[in-house]
Amino acid sequence: MKGTGLFKILIGGLAAYELLGMMKAGNKTVLRPPGAVDEDEFLALCIRCGKCNQACPYDSIKMGKENLGFGIGTPYIDARDNPCRLCDDYPCVNVCPTDALTGINNVYDVEMGLAVIDTKHCIAYQGMRCEVCYRECPLIDEAIKLNIYVKPDDPTHAVFAPIIDPEKCVGCGICEERCVIENPVAIRVKPRVIKGIF
User: Which interval of the chain is the signal sequence (predicted)?
Assistant: First the structure.
């Protein structure tokens, strides 16, 4: 009897520990709105009021469901569905009552994430002219530049390959939304884990 009770406590504790780790780790993969403080602090500061969601003029900010674990009710952005448009006045940041979103004066203060190109699926790297992510980037020729070179197996054609400057990319996700490739998309925004580190 005593052994069974102890076993249940141990199993319950182990399950809770694993669930806690899974939920916290899961949140680190979410793209937060501009000005989000580091994830652990964000989860502590965010009161799940939804003001940022209501203030977003593009409906880019969603509120987390149960799949976000401890992040339930917190704001996030699904870049492929509806990225951040980098509003001039950052209404989401301005309405935040707790400084969970803070410190944004202009676009260069934004550090949501970093775009990463899957060169195996990007058609520009295969030699087809695309440039969609490059042309749609709000920081054109800064965050995304073109590396133009002669195609190795075809000296009469050039490759216009997009490259990301990690110092300039703010992680808005517009490139991911506009990518013409599906399953998998050829460019994705990787959320930042710690401010300044991707």
Answer: none
